[in-house]
Amino acid sequence: MKVSAIVLACLFIGILRMVNSHVYPRQASSVHNSPNLDPLPRISVVKGSAETRNQQAQFYAAGKAIKLRGSDYIRLNRTSIGTPLHRPTSPPRLFPSETPLPAYHSTFSVGKYNRTQAEAALASMQALGFNMARVFIDDGRTYCGITMLSGTSMDAENTESDAHNMAIPVLPCTAASARPNGVGGAWDDKKLSREYMDNFADFVRLATQYKVWLMPTFQRFPCTARFVAMTHPRNMHISDGNADYLDAPTVSAKAAYLQEFSSELRARIGSELMSTVLAYSLENEARAYGNEIPFSDQTLTAVKFSDGHEYNMSDARERRAGLDASFAYWASTVGTAVRSIDDKALVTVGMFTYYAVGHASPVAPGPTSSSPDPRFPPDPSHLSTHGNVDYLDIHVYPTGEKFNLDQDLASENYDAIDQQKVPVLMGEFGAFKRFYPTASDAAHKLREIMLSTCREYGFQGWLAWTWDTWEQGWMLWNMQDQKAFIAHALSPELFNDTCFV
């Protein structure tokens, strides 16, 4: 298919997806062996007990409790020539919706990985006392231009949810729309991309050198023929957007992907350096779509979900129960695949809050929701009990004076989370420039969130969005803005509290 045809497909695609994520400039990839690296201590989770003198589960390294502090290191190659995009003249347009993106999360993409910049970032993180970074793996899908979810607007009056409502339409995964520079390689490749895996392995070695633990984050599965084939036969009563969690063959494809990824990584860096990978995040922000089947068709009275049970879509309680069971089955299945390669690996799932998408609690998915936002994340209290995850990753984005942290976390059934079993980490928290016009305003709010969630809610880690994602400079502050003002403001060397110890 020629580029013009892909542009046409992007122009008319009707499925809008919100992916609250982000990516950088180009440089040829290179792999450097570092034979004398000392492995980082393996991070583990120790459950709360009288013996540990703490009722909450905690992260441990080398026999000591540790708080995790850092950022998301993200490169977003948004144009065909790899140049940055500046603030749009008329929000909410970031770039034309008919524009196909040659790479989205391009941090390690073939032909775009920049080792020099990556090493400089990791060295700066270490110098300021940060110990963790979250990164994204490029799945090779073609994403189109940014837009807003129906019923929302970046120009609207500030609300609790509108800042979280950007959508990135994604083309169906086909030979024509697949990109060869992602982790899956070319459409017909039988293994994950050698060059991509080499790039990521090189980054792991650098992170080991600078003593920064990593949390790679995986979205869906690679857009290649063999992974698509694994999803068949598909349940025709489940949409593509909901299949990731509700459709058993699609869950198996994701499990096969992460199993292969961890195996390929171990083959490159050796078992000793696998400790640098603190955890595998199975999805950036897991969510189902209430405006897509099966939830949108309440005449369906017996739909088999991934856990093998049938659910009645005319019953709100069954829709909610089916979604909870499917998220748990998906997380447990994919997590088991990862641990089959690295039995000490931690597994987590990222999620935004129900408050962020207009709900006061985990309601039943469906098209008649009280919110125009169609996305329904997991209920973390259910996932922490039934999903076999080692910790939870809950994302928080304040939205000015109307933002209420207590309501935000209450929408997650936060008090019902079994924190004696699983710690809670904030894998994303950031500041939008339209709510916080100066770097000082942003830093003040982010520090406030860190202190409140540590002292009052027992969070065990915080990763700021982002380290230096200049590609989003028109919209969000990053830690390097204003001569690294926010990086210094959040630095463990300069901002500490007894709760962070």
Features:
three-stranded antiparallel sheet; eight-stranded parallel sheet; 11 helices; single chain; globular; 501 residues; alpha/beta; 17 strands; 28% helix
User: How many β-strand stretches?
Assistant: 17
Shape designation: globular
Structural class: alpha/beta
Order of helices and strands: HEEEEHEEEHEHHHEEEEHEEHEHEHEH
Helix share, percent: 25-40%
What does this 3D model show about the protein?
It is a single chain. With 501 residues, this protein is an alpha/beta fold. It contains eleven helices and 17 strands. The strands form five sheets. An eight-stranded parallel beta sheet has the order 8-5-4-17-16-15-13-9, with helices on one face. The chain has a three-stranded antiparallel beta sheet with strand order 1-2-3, with no helix packed on it. The protein has a two-stranded antiparallel ribbon with strand order 6-7.
Task: Reconstruct the topology from this structure.
Blueprint: H1 3-12, E1 44-46, E2 58-61, E3 64-66, E4 68-72, H2 115-127, E5 132-137, E6 147-148, E7 166-167, H3 194-209, E8 213-218, H4 225-230, H5 240-246, H6 248-273, E9 279-281, E10 288-289, E11 303-304, E12 310-311, H7 316-339, E13 346-351, E14 375-376, H8 380-386, E15 391-394, H9 405-410, E16 424-429, H10 439-455, E17 461-464, H11 481-490
Parallel strand pairs: 4-5, 4-17, 5-8, 9-13, 13-15, 15-16, 16-17
Antiparallel strand pairs: 1-2, 2-3, 6-7, 10-14, 11-12
